[in-house]
Write a sequence for this structure.
DNA sequence: CCTCATACTGTATGCGCATACATCCCCTTC
DNA sequence: GAAGGGGATGTATGCGCATACAGTATGAGG
């Protein structure tokens, strides 16, 4: 405790102190059953005495495996962070009784949940998880070299880079549809989920005037959801549009903007099927603000099943993605591939759940 | 791409192909300015050609630094996860039109935000973040050996273990009060925040019948918040209680239970000051369910400032902890210590913000 | 022309550990 | 009582890279 870290002890130090060879020290950690109890005790004592902690780098190098999984996240949208926060060490407190405006919830529960799932599953297999933000070659330098395999969200790493990395370690891509590459993929059934949602609105609520509010045009998830929407309409004998009515960028504030625009244009359809929850919540905000009633005047639905969809008024009817399971399945897939590199490319699809709540007129 | 990963290329392979020595290859990555352009080009070509990615383990070993920060989280409460999720590779979808009951939001935005802050700040300094769940000696084996320093939430790692680890790498503890140890600490001003909140209720709303709903008795955060509550009352000339009226476990469902109990006992005070948001939200649920009005009949306040506090009806008056900044400050402190191991133990306190919303009668 | 600084590049070594292989000891077996 | 076997431990080597140091080439200065 009051030690000034003179020098990190190594196996050699422990071996000397315990009066054994370094091989024995190593064995005490890796193959305890191959060491006699008496020897083990002496080594343990030396370890405690010296405060020895095995070097992960050396171990990884010698063992030819890192014992870690890499998780690569998209650049936190716009969250550059700026300079580090000021820290007052004198316990000063700033009381702001008039917050200028409530902060927008981060809403990235999606990532958090995926991360959590990854963490849980990796932990169960004795693997650590190393996280990195995709930005420039950081991944290349910081992540790829130190993990046994990598999990990434689709479109977060430039294809060139990913291909390069994939030559060394297996890569699993979460979300998005198979892009003709050779990676393993894990996704949710966007198409079926959205189709079910669409048909529910038509079947259960008798609405035939539906419009789709999409996300970024280059999002494969959005693409699939729109496709599900079209298939749903088609199945109900309704002519599907070739394009979404509007496109947002998946954020709530943008959703609000879209909502306002619709109201101002005076062309609000009976049902607005949104490509994700944030957009739907934003639209909800805008509609309610103008006095329109949901679901009486307009039905609004989302996709994802983030927490906020459950606490809104009215609560949002949506399609829940098993986000945590997504992370877990990705880890499983990765580990399977590590076990058998010759496996053909895998594609896993997780089932979704349609959650019917107030915003579509159910549970009214 | 269609490569079967014959063998991971090393500096030697690259050097051979480029017709240079391994030192030059290494330099191309570490000290590009010391290599002539022509040589660099040849090496780069070889790298691309072979799909070379430097081994993080070898680099860390040779450079004597891992280039990573460890983040140690408490065991996800009760989230064991069970077996991995089933994955259907045929695109099957399960539609559950009657969800048995909405799932309780995970609510662990706190951890997510801290993690995010850590990630952001680490990234700014070219560091990777490796996450691990505190459980048994996993940290010891998996984390401590592979990072340059460690950040942990208070009370998540057994003291013995932490002390052992701290002999090798610096440790920064988040939240909780300084425990007489020699680690660096980063926390928020629980006392001042709660005192300000308490005094606001008395001053602005003229309420003098306040009660405190606490969390686990062994939580240092809870302890400090109660202390702030008492100080607030004292400052207002009100005799403070020696114990919280009730104690929960910081979960929403438990908060609901506490709320019901209060109503049934018929002893609901004019204002309920809760030790965290989840508890407050649970109490809100219970009170509203019995027809009581908030804030007209009862004032309820929280602490933390999680997203859900902003979407509840009425919105929750609370004290916002700068969760993301907490993570960032922890990283900063860690890096500072790495730069100067002889620094005396640091204790940083981040300012909190009192957010006045409907549940206390403001913004009514 | 020779000296010497400058700009590159190569050689050799060690980082801390895992592990194949060799060694040694003690006990069993016929 | 010699041969053989299994358990416990030691010896030696390499994992892939960074880097101190030594070498080479080139051009400037005298």
């Amino acid at each position: 405790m009051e030690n000034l870290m003179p020098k990190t002890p190594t196996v050699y130090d422990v071996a000397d102190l315990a009066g054994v060879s370094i091989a024995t020290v190593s064995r005490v950690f890796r193959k305890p059953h191959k060491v006699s109890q008496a020897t083990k005790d002496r080594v343990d004592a030396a370890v405690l005495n010296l405060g020895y902690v095995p070097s992960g780098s050396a171990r990884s190098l010698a063992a030819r495996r890192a014992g870690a999984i890499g998780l690569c996240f998209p650049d936190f949208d716009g969250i550059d962070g700026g300079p580090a926060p000021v820290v007052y060490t004198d316990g000063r407190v700033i009381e702001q009784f008039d917050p200028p405006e409530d902060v927008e919830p981060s809403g990235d529960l999606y990532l958090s949940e995926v991360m959590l799932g990854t963490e849980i599953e990796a932990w169960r297999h004795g693997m650590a998880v190393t996280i990195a933000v995709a930005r420039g070659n950081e991944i290349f330098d910081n992540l790829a070299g130190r993990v046994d395999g990598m999990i990434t969200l689709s479109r977060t790493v430039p294809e060139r880079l990913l291909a390069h990395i994939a030559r060394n370690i297996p890569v699993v891509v979460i979300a998005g549809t198979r892009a003709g590459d050779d990676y393993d993929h894990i996704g949710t059934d966007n198409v079926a989920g959205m189709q079910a949602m669409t048909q529910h609105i038509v079947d259960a609520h008798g609405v035939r005037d539906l419009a789709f509010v999409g996300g970024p045009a280059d999002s494969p998830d959005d693409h699939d959801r729109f496709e599900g929407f079209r298939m749903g309409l088609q199945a109900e004998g309704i002519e599907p549009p070739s394009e979404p009515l509007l496109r947002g960028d998946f954020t709530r504030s943008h959703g609000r903007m879209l909502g306002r625009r619709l109201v101002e244009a005076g062309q609000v359809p009976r049902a607005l099927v949104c490509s994700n929850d944030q957009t739907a919540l934003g639209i909800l905000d805008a509609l309610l603000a103008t006095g329109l009633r949901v679901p009486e005047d307009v039905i609004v639905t989302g996709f994802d099943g983030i927490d906020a969809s459950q606490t809104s008024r009215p609560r949002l009817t949506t399609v829940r993605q098993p986000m945590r399971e997504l992370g877990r399945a990705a880890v499983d897939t990765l580990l399977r591939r590590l076990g058998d590199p010759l496996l053909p490319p895998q594609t896993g699809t997780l089932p979704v759940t349609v959650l019917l709540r107030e915003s579509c007129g159910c549970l009214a």
In short: The domain at 190-321+354-360 of chain A is CATH 3.40.50.2300 (Rossmann fold). Confidence is low (pLDDT under 50) at residues 1-5, 77-106 of chain A. The radius of gyration of chain A is 26 Å. Residues 8, 10-12, 22-23, 25-27, 29-30, 54-55, 57-64 of chain A lie near DNA strand C (CB under 10 Å from a C1').
